[in-house]
């Protein structure tokens, strides 16, 4: 390119091309800066500084632009980077620089040059897209061309509009017809630009019985036109689609053209399918657009050209009206809008233009053919041969149930059930679209919401392939990613109902119906202090769910968990993500319930520990004081005198037990320490509650992750061994004549046998509760004053 620049006689043009090349190289290489250069960013990249009096050179200014463009990439790593626009993009950018330079020429040279640029570009576009004898209007805003066409139609149909203005429109209101599938906001934009009230807009519904649901209903349109004429209105303009903004469907343009000619209506066509007019084979529905009164095209995205204006081609014989409507201008600056496109078309050539459009269409056809072989994927575009847009969605019917994910409601389903299934479908397809966008960024996928079908994924290579450089390998990778995600989608859909049933059957858990969540479900743990009628946030519940999330993530399962407020209230919930088909839902739900219950009990124990201990200490002090007073009464006053008490204790020792108090933290009760000193072991007291655990807890195989079903062979082996073990127990029970019966009897060699002493009762109770007996190793059987414990049970001769 440097050698070519040397051949240019005009030094300004040569310097401009050289500077553009250096500037683009610096900006494109900015992503490969080193960390040392990152630390030397200009302060003015973040905080505007004072304007320097001496000025700066071009390199410093470009460095500032570079910092402004890429300065936030460290903070936002997911932000999209600038694409490499290539040589054809450099030509488009050069056009803007040349436009500023050309505007400095003298008027005569400027007039000749701008006229040549405008006429050449118009002629090339009309020939490429088969629009004979047309004129071109270049505009930055894509909708601006249609607004100018509406002004031209008003001036053509209302002859006195220039003189009387809107009084003419008031006597006979114009009507602009738009399809219900038109891009959002188009009608409001036209009314704002034209100064017309919204009743001048008329939305034509799409087909409901026959044909595509995104095509304009021609019969209903004709009925609306007749009704407007009878009411004294003037049908002015009809906007048809050659590829709707959503799914790329093409209206019946041939039939619409006949209807417009019959009633004198201006027909305007727009849409991405107009690009196919440059190909050798064009479908009849799109080819009919060449007979319309005007059309708007966007060659910039089609050809991957940045900063290239949109083009509106139109046919009209009155130059005065086009000038009044703003479609033509005598200003050279307006004519220079075509300069970037003029340069880019020459750089690409006719073969390059056709090749880019053909490549995009082949990508869409390749994806369509591949998706036809994939189960559970529904393609929405019906006219598959002509449309370069592919719109698909996940679709599956569950066995023994009503079809789900259908656009038409099933009569057997209630409206609420249909809405719930619709939202569930949207959530799964939204998750699929986001996953595919991350895995194959070169595909340029978009996730969109359609009124009838719901959430879908759109592949429109005509608008993205030239910029992103999409290739056939990217389409194959996209199909492979779709196939890899389908098992997870299918299993999640099938496990949703099982998860709901398990949660509803588990105490303490509440199933939350959140159809916008793409996982298997949402659950909330209801703690003891949970106010079910309140919709406000619950701090205690949030604390429990936060601990539950931490515990579940520590298990390192394949599931993803997150917590957040319920979509109908502010209460915290646990969201369970997508699941595979070998997921053990019962174990999952039971683990959630047991873990949440354990967290709640531990939390309550810690919260109440301080108060319980304080009250226990106070109660122990009171009881110990009472015990001291009772000891004083039993021993007498004389024993408290130092000298006299020692003499009395020597002659008549006092057999007193050590009486203290012990506090059971688990049970929260105060107990006596007497058993510790009497039996040399502490009594059992209140047995602490067992740690909650699922009854379905099972032993996992080495390498098996939590919440996974075991293999069929191991399950069968486990069931066989369990059954044989139960049979052995039943056989032993039949041989022994029934279950064992253990009874505890106590007799005394003195006193009445029916009235055991308190000491004997305490020992009996300790034995029943399993406490260790200090005298079991040396029993005093048959001796006077000793206790005789006998264990009697039925004698089994077989054992």
TrEMBL record:
Residues 499-604 form the PDXDC1-like third domain. Its cofactor is pyridoxal 5'-phosphate. It comes from the Eukaryota. Residues 28-49, 682-799 are annotated as: Disordered. Residues 387-493 form the PDXDC1/PDXD2 second domain. One of its GO terms (molecular function) is carboxy-lyase activity. InterPro entries: GrpII_AminoAcid_Decarb, PDXDC1-like_2nd, PDXDC1-like_3rd, PyrdxlP-dep_de-COase, PyrdxlP-dep_Trfase, PyrdxlP-dep_Trfase_major. Keywords: Coiled coil, Decarboxylase, Lyase, Pyridoxal phosphate. Residues 610-637 form a coiled coil. One of its GO terms (biological process) is carboxylic acid metabolic process. The keyword Cell wall biogenesis/degradation does not apply. Residues 28-40, 725-734, 772-790 have a biased composition (Basic and acidic residues). Belongs to the group II decarboxylase family. This is Pyridoxal-dependent decarboxylase domain-containing protein 1. The gene is PDXDC1.
């Amino acid at each position: 390119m440097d050698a070519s620049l040397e051949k240019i006689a005009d030094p300004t043009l040569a310097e401009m091309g050289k500077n553009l090349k250096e500037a683009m190289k610096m900006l494109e290489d900015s992503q490969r800066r080193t960390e040392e250069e990152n630390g030397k960013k200009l302060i003015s990249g973040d905080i505007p500084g004072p304007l320097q009096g001496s000025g700066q050179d071009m390199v410093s200014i470009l460095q500032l632009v570079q910092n402004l463009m890429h300065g936030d990439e460290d903070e936002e790593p997911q932000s999209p980077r600038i694409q490499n626009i290539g040589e054809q993009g450099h030509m488009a950018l050069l056009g803007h620089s040349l436009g500023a330079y050309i505007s400095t020429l003298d008027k005569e040279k400027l007039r000749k040059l701008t006229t040549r640029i405008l006429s050449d570009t118009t002629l090339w576009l009309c020939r490429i897209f088969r629009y004979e004898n047309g004129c071109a209007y270049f505009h930055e805003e894509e909708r601006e061309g249609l607004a100018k066409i509406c002004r031209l139609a008003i001036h053509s149909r209302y002859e006195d509009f220039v003189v009387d203005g809107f009084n003419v429109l008031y006597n006979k209101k114009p009507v602009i017809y738009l399809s219900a599938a038109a891009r959002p906001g188009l009608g409001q934009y036209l009314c704002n630009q034209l100064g017309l009230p919204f009743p001048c807009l008329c939305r034509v519904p799409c087909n409901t019985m026959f044909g595509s649901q995104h095509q304009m209903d021609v019969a209903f349109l004709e009925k609306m036109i007749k009704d407007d004429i009878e009411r004294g209105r003037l049908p002015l303009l009809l906007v048809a689609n050659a590829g709707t903004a959503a799914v790329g469907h093409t209206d019946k343009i041939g039939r619409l053209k006949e209807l417009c000619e019959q009633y004198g209506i201006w027909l305007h066509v727009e849409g991405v399918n107009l690009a196919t007019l440059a190909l050798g084979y064009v479908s009849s529905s799109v080819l009919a657009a060449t007979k319309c009164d005007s059309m708007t095209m966007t060659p910039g995205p089609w050809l991957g050209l940045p900063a290239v204006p949109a083009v509106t081609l139109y046919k009209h014989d009155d130059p005065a009206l086009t000038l009044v409507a703003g479609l033509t201008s005598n200003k050279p600056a307006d004519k220079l809008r075509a300069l970037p496109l003029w340069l880019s078309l020459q750089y690409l050539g006719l073969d390059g233009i056709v090749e880019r459009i053909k490549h995009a269409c082949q990508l869409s056809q390749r994806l369509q053919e591949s998706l036809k072989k994939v189960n559970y994927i529904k393609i929405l575009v019906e006219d598959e041969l002509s449309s370069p847009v592919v719109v698909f969605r996940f679709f599956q019917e569950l066995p023994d149930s009503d079809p789900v994910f259908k656009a038409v409601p099933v009569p057997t389903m209630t409206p609420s059930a249909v809405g719930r299934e619709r939202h569930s479908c949207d959530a799964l397809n939204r998750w699929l679209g986001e996953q595919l966008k991350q895995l194959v960024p070169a595909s340029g996928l978009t996730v969109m919401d359609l009124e009838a079908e719901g959430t879908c994924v759109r592949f429109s290579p005509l608008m993205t392939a030239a910029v992103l450089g999409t290739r056939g390998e990217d389409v194959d990778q996209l199909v492979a990613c779709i196939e890899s995600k389908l098992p997870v989608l299918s299993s999640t859909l099938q496990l949703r109902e099982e998860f709901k049933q398990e949660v509803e059957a588990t105490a303490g858990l509440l199933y939350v119906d959140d159809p916008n969540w793409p996982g298997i479900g949402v659950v909330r743990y209801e703690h003891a202090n949970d106010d079910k009628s309140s919709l406000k946030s619950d701090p205690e519940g949030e604390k429990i769910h936060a601990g539950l999330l931490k515990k579940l993530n520590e298990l390192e399962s394949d599931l993803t968990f997150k917590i957040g407020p319920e979509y109908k209230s502010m209460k915290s919930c646990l969201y369970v993500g997508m699941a595979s088909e070998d997921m053990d839902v019962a174990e999952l739900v039971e683990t959630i319930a047991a873990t949440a219950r354990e967290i709640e009990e531990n939390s309550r124990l810690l919260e109440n520990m301080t108060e319980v201990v304080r009250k226990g200490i106070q109660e122990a002090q009171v009881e110990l004081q009472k015990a001291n007073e009772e000891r004083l009464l039993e021993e007498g006053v004389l024993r408290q005198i130092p000298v006299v008490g020692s003499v009395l204790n020597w002659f008549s020792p006092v057999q007193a037990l050590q009486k203290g108090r012990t506090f059971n933290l688990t049970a929260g009760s105060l107990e006596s320490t007497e058993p510790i000193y009497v039996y040399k072991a502490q009594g059992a007291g209140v047995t602490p509650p067992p740690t909650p655990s699922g009854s379905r807890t099972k032993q996992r195989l080495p390498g098996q992750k939590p919440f996974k079903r075991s293999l069929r062979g191991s399950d069968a082996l486990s069931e066989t061994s369990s059954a044989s073990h139960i049979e052995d127990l039943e056989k032993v029970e039949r041989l022994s004549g029934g279950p064992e019966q253990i009874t505890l009897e106590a007799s005394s060699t003195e006193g009445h046998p029916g009235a055991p002493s308190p000491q004997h009762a305490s020992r009996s109770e300790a034995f029943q509760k399993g406490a260790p007996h200090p005298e079991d190793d040396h029993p005093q059987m048959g001796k006077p004053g000793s206790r005789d414990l006998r264990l009697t049970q039925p004698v089994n001769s077989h054992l």
